[in-house]
Amino acid sequence: MIVVTTENIPGYRVKEVLGPVFGLTVRSRGIGGNIMAGLRSIMGGEIKEYTSMLEDARKQAMDRMVQNARAMGADAVIMMRYDSGEIGQDMSEIVAYGTAVVVERT
Prior knowledge:
- The chain contains two helices and four strands; from the N terminus they run ββααββ.
- By secondary structure, it is α+β, with helices and mostly antiparallel strands.
- The model has no long low-confidence stretch (mean pLDDT 87).
């Protein structure tokens, strides 16, 4: 599966646009991670517990988007983006989205 943030893929042409596709995940740090993050926030600097959680969440959201695109019959996703938001005080929503397409080499 080719996934790009651009409208075009060099060396390919879009043969068919299948439509929007997305992958979604919601994550929350456990109590231990929240305590460690709270302690780190007092001292300043990167909060590695949250960085790791968000990296994993982005990967899972992208994997789910790719699965959904495959189910639609796509072999590429163009204009891929991430979006995120908060749900409550300790949950993060991450969505990967784009346009599922069928491409062919030029």
